[in-house]
Design a protein that fits this description.
Elements: E1 8-14, H1 20-29, E2 42-51, E3 54-63, E4 82-88, H2 92-109, E5 115-120, H3 122-126, H4 137-146, E6 151-154, H5 163-189
Parallel strand pairs: 1-3, 1-4, 4-5, 5-6
Antiparallel strand pairs: 2-3
Length: 192
């Protein structure tokens, strides 16, 4: 868990092309990156924000989802305070890979680190006349329960809906955890 001397570290994982990088760029710059898809090998974004009245330093780590980078990706996991496992609501394979690939990988490397499941590209589902080819919010919540994720959230980087909430929720959760841990440690210190 994070200490007061270092930023809260959130690592974003999921298949390539599910919108991880776009989500992070939308949050950090306030704009949607247009243009050709270029796979991320590794990138991170740092900043500070107010969270529940507390100034918090954060680092958001963007990881490559492609198989070519399977050996490099776990190098970003040590010291992680929370994972955002992402799938695209228009891509059934990315949804299935949460169970078959991503959940096992992060739990193997960081078994006690909290997970938040994130459905991305919701604008594609919301703007479609046929909803049957998309992952529903109910399906997302069921998968979150199955992997014991702390929460299921959705966002669209293109329309900037849910992007701030996806970043702010893990920070609020981690602050509550740190506060509870510190209170517990102080309680035990009183017994000395």
């Amino acid at each position: 868990m994070t200490s007061p001397n270092r930023p809260i570290k959130l690592v974003v994982v999921g298949d390539g092309t599910v919108g991880k990088t776009c989500m992070l760029i939308a949050y950090t710059t306030g704009s949607f990156p247009e243009g050709e898809y270029v796979p991320t090998v590794f990138d991170n974004y740092a900043g500070t924000m107010d969270c529940d009245g507390v100034r918090v330093s954060t680092t958001l780590w963007d990881t490559a989802g492609q198989e070519d980078y399977e050996r490099l990706r776990p190098l970003s996991y040590p010291g992680t305070d929370g994972f955002l496992l992402c799938f695209s609501v228009d891509n059934n394979r990315s949804y299935e890979n949460i169970i078959t690939k991503w959940y096992g990988e992060v739990k193997h490397h960081c078994p006690r680190t909290p997970i938040i499941l994130v459905g991305t590209k919701t604008d594609l589902r919301d703007n479609s006349s046929s909803k049957e080819n998309f992952i529903s919010k109910t399906q997302g919540k069921k998968l979150a329960a199955k992997i014991k994720a702390v929460k299921y959230m959705e966002c669209s980087a293109k329309e900037f809906t849910g992007v701030k909430e996806v970043r702010n929720f893990p920070l609020s959760l981690l602050l509550v955890y740190v506060h509870t841990l510190c209170s517990t440690l102080n309680m035990f210190a009183d017994f000395r």
